[in-house]
Design brief:
There is one protein chain. The protein is mostly helical. Helices cover 68% and strands 0% of the residues. It contains one helix and no strands.
Length: 50
């Protein structure tokens, strides 16, 4: 059975995924900052996320 999505449903799903990604990036950034500071003794100034 084929199920088609409307444009609004697709955009809603896309925005939800983007929000989840932003939340995960923030969580990872916090964890990486703590780990890097413990290793080097300095706070990192930037992070790179794909």
């Amino acid at each position: 059975m084929e199920q088609t999505r409307t444009r609004e449903e697709f955009l809603q799903k896309f925005e939800k995924a983007k929000q989840r990604k932003r939340e995960m990036v923030e969580k990872m950034k916090e964890e990486m900052m703590i780990e890097a500071e413990e290793r080097t003794g300095k706070k990192p100034t930037s992070f790179f996320v794909l």
